[in-house]
Amino acid sequence: MSAVLGFTCLFIGLVIVNAVYSYQSKHIDPAFGATFLFQLKMLLLFLPANLLIGYGVRWVQQCFGQLTTALVSAKIVELLVCLLMGYMFMQEMPTWKTWVGLLIIVGGFMLMKWK
């Protein structure tokens, strides 16, 4: 249960953070003033997102017993969220090379956990 809750919190928190940055890159003028105002408005979203990510890492770490494993698995979740944001905001379809790269990363994670 702890792992499911941890990965759910990680996913939701990472979706919030990456959605804000993806929206900014597509719809906000890159001038400093417009970017600053947008980021100021988004501060209220970053607090719950950071809490979700922090507790997600904590619960995954408690489940696996190692912080390194929790952080690496959080990065894998973040890569999947980045693919989702790329599709949602930029209509970028992952290619076979993207999937092979992700499989290599997951394979490295499994090798790291192999005893």
Automatic annotation (TrEMBL):
Keyword terms of this UniProt record: Membrane, Transmembrane, Transmembrane helix
Transmembrane segments: 32-55, 67-90, 96-114
InterPro entries: EmrE-like
Location (main, coarse): membrane
Membrane association type: Multi-pass membrane protein
UniProt-annotated location(s): Endomembrane system
Name of this chain's protein: EamA-like transporter family protein
Organism encoding this protein: Paenibacillus tianmuensis
Lineage per the UniProt record: Bacteria, Bacillati, Bacillota, Bacilli, Bacillales
